[in-house]
Specification:
- By secondary structure, this protein is α+β, with helices and mostly antiparallel strands.
- The protein is 56% helix and 17% strand.
- The protein is built from five helices and five strands; from the N terminus they run E-E-H-H-E-H-H-E-E-H.
- It has helices at 17-23, 29-36, 44-51, 56-68, 90-124; strands spanning 3-6, 9-12, 42-43, 72-77, 83-88.
- The strands form two sheets. The chain has a three-stranded antiparallel sheet with strand order 3-5-4.
- Helix 2 (29-36) crosses helix 4.
- It is globular, with a radius of gyration of 19 Å.
Length: 126
Amino acid sequence: MSRDTDGGSEHFVADCRLRMATDLFTHVWDPVVLAALTDGPQRRRALRASIGGISDKALTEALHRLITNGLLERRSYAEAPPRVDYALTALGRTFTDGPMRALGEWITRYGGELFEAQERMRLAYT
C-alpha cells in the first residue's frame, strides 16, 4: 500500500493499491460481468442474456472498465458476420478465483448474519 507519512501519522493516499483493488467492487455490474465470464468467452448478446437485468449502457460501461483495468479482453474475429467475444484475461482469472471467490464464500457463510444486522437496524429506525 502506498502511504504518506506526515509527522509520524500515516495516511492512505489516493493512488493506494488497496483503493485500486476495492474500486473493482464498487461498480455494481463489474463483478457480475466477471462472474458471467468464468465459464469461458461469450458474445455480447449472450453475456447480456446470461446476466439479466443489465441495460445495454451498463454492460458497455462495465466491459469498458474491465478491459481498461486489464481484467477482460475483447477478441475480434474476421468472419462474416463479424464476431466479437469477451473473455477473462489471466489477471481477470486471478481476481475471480481469488478475491471474488473469497467474498462469495464469506457471504455464503455470514450472509444470514449480515442480513439480520441490517434488518435490526432498519426496524430500529422505522
